[in-house]
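Encode chain A's predicted structure.
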Amino acid sequence: MSKEVNREQLSLDCKFKLAQSLYSAYSTLQSTSELEHMLSEIPNTDSTFNYKNPRALINSIILQNYPNEISVKSNFINEVLFKSNNQVTIFELILGKSRADLCKVNGASVAYEIKTDLDNLLRLEKQLTDYLNVFENVFVICSVNKLPEIEKTILEECGIYIYSISQTGKYKFKKYRPALSSKTLNSEKQLKILRKKELYDYFKLNTYCSRESMEQYILQHYSNKKINLIFKTIMKDRYREQWEFLRNNKDNIYEIDYQWFFKNAINPSLIYG
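Encoded structure for chain A:
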């Protein structure tokens, strides 16, 4: 029995290392011939591999065997965010000195931080504090295995999504704990996220002056509640077109490329050939 377990573990380790190698070497802009060459250069023992569609093969290997941030993120988008209507999702938004993995804005604003089993939690408290200064709700997305460690670390306002992965690499997500409304929303920090032209246009300013002067005027003449409402409107307007592009083209985009296409919004056929 122990030999069978050892062989199974060895197989899992090999698949993990293969997927990790492919992820490190992969680029969305690589041609089919470059991807074929990349696959041929990486040793594997699986005789079922074929290169008829190398990008699809690489996508499958990574998603099923390498549970890193990209794999968790793309599966969360598929299983949760794509199923939610009337909202705009944002990738990699800089908030203070942190960068939120995903954000969502509809009636409420939500930030998500992914912590995989490959991640440490050294910066988590600081990250969540930065997110709560700008977004109304904050969630941590973690595996079932990492849940006890996460619960000991995060702030009480933060919600939790947990995920499990089947033997075939299928992800299942569940909202384990709801998020409470942030007690530390900071209008000044919300304004820092906005572009100068957005401040001028959305807050209906009369003078296009220095950014500092604009911010000070808004803070003096608008309530925190109003600033938060306008902030959410701006975020939706700024990223709506990119998010709708990804939603409309998701069936033609490989999951490992979701973030690239969100950022660049180019017809997939022009990139994949």
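The radius of gyration is 21 Å.
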